[in-house]
Amino acid sequence: MAKTRWYKNAVVYQIYPRSFMDSDGDGIGDLNGITEKADYIKSLGVDAVWLSPCYKSPNDDNGYDISDYCDIMDEFGTMQDFDRMLQAFHDRGIKVLMDLVVNHTSDEHNWFQESRKSKDNPYRDFYIWRDGKGHDKKNPPNNWRACFGGSAWEYDETTEQFYLHLFSKKQPDLNWENPKVRESVADICNFWLRKGVDGFRCDVITYISKPDDLQNAKQSEVVVGPRWKTYIHELADRSFNKYDTLIVGEAAGIDFPRACEITDESAGLLDMLFHFEHVAAIPVCAYSQKSTNLRRFKRILFRWQSLPETAWGAVYYENHDQPRSLPRFAPAGKHREAAAKSLALSLLFQKGTPFLYQGQELGMTNCPFTRGDYRDIQSVNLLADMQKKPFGAFLSKFTEKYLQRYARDNARTPMQWNTAKNAGFTQGTPWMKINGNYREINAQSQIQNPDSVFCFYQKALDLRKQYADIVRDGEFSPIDKRNKHVLAFTRQLNGKYLLAVCSLSPKSAKCKIPAYLCTGQATLLLRNTKQPIALTETVYLPPCTCALWEISPEKSK
Ligand code: ISL
């Protein structure tokens, strides 16, 4: 089927089901909870949702370890609940993307249960098994590290071999060299596409093809393995391309030149990808309290705005693996609301498909955790590992500081719906800590307040629709590129400009505007302050102020 590329005008809202809305009081978000909130999502003005995994899973990594791809996680409900939720979104004109996690499965998946039984089991080759090294063959086949700590190889007594797991040992990597694996994955995709889902966010999809000589390969070679393109083409032919899908790949480690190739329409691989350059985690050892450098942030964002015309990008500041953008990219203290709006404007008018993460539309912030509050396998393992090292007590303290800023848990605290008990998220005991600031930051109060972050998002999303052509196709140009406090740019199409000026500084700031933009007709479309903002060659901005103009200049550039 020919792609309509509907996603070029869309904004996607990511739901982390576990933390979105609990409908049955077990303390865990669920599908019926999401359905209850479909009107809320519609009212925000987004066009699609991406659901983090809701398949059957033992939850070693909160659903990113799947034990049955064609069934729903017990805590989240049933397949009927899923169908109802899908219908609720479609009735509202909202598309639904599933999270496709097929680099690995859970070790509790039937395929792995079979695979580990014996070397001649029909499922043995569904996973990547190798002999160990050393005289007793008890050393891992290579020095690769798992993302959640330790070796990427786990020894299995039954068959006396190691299996590969790039993530936790409960997430064995699938062997994509095996045609049966590839067929099975296509079947899974078709199962969901037949149900009517509109595409996939593909988890670590570029890691699926492993280097040939695994024992001697460098771990960096896994970022885009040797047969990656072939496998994606095959999957697209068998599944994705039969429908009008959006296929967005998570692509940790992908650099700009490679992204240009991969997302070029002619390549037929991914419609867009998530790069990590602006959110690259700082290693614990290099961590300091320094805040993000806006110049560096801008340099990265602007570079990624220069994808060729034939390629396309996904733009985002938050997701379930990242701390909140407040205070990461802008101040969260007394300027929190203004900062949240300024970030919103700076994101939503870039070229590409914006992805919002639940709670971002409220300006939700990082959470002040104490040690026992962490739930994410990555945080829990890191704390445990540090404690075991020499000077464990000191390292643990340091790690806690690091986690406070970078832990994935920050994004995973439950949605803050109202001022009722547990922020209106659950009647029971929440599965993880709720951020105490819910009395101040919650959906109910913001929906009613025209000056709220939520209403700002609504207005910005509405403007995106009014200016759909320029937002989709307009040329992107940075303004006052080297400014350390302000992120500003124009989008231009057929001589008409949108100018976004977004201060991310807690201090007053200035932004230099080129003379040609100060001529002709200018209309202020949106701002986050009641004060007037004059469009002159120097725009003066109170802390975290932002504004969006439509300009038809008399003179050209
Ligand atoms: O989260 C990270 C750093 O804090 C990343 O390294 C992350 O593990 C990587 O981007 C892959 O993420 C995806 O796959 C993981 C899962 O834990 C993440 O939630 C998911 O987004 C394994 O399935």
Number of strands: 20
Number of domains: 4
Name the assembly state.
single chain
The largest beta-sheet arranges its strands as 11-10-9-5-2-1-13-12
Helix percentage: 25-40%
Mean pLDDT: 96
The small molecules bound here are: 6-O-alpha-D-glucopyranosyl-D-fructose
Distance between the termini: 41 Å
Structural class: alpha/beta
Q: What's the Cα radius of gyration?
A: 24 Å
Tally of alpha and pi helices: 16
What is the fold's blueprint, element by element?
Elements: E1 12-15, H1 31-36, H2 38-44, E2 48-51, E3 55-56, E4 68-72, H3 79-91, E5 95-100, H4 110-115, E6 129-130, E7 153-156, E8 161-164, H5 179-195, E9 199-202, H6 228-238, E10 246-250, H7 256-263, E11 272-274, H8 294-304, E12 314-316, H9 325-328, H10 336-348, E13 353-357, H11 377-388, H12 392-406, H13 409-412, H14 443-448, H15 453-466, H16 468-473, E14 475-479, E15 486-493, E16 496-503, E17 509-512, E18 521-527, E19 538-541, E20 546-552
Parallel strand pairs: 1-2, 1-13, 2-5, 5-9, 9-10, 10-11, 12-13
Antiparallel strand pairs: 3-4, 6-8, 7-8, 14-15, 15-16, 16-20, 17-19, 18-20
Helix pairs in contact: 5-6, 10-15, 11-12
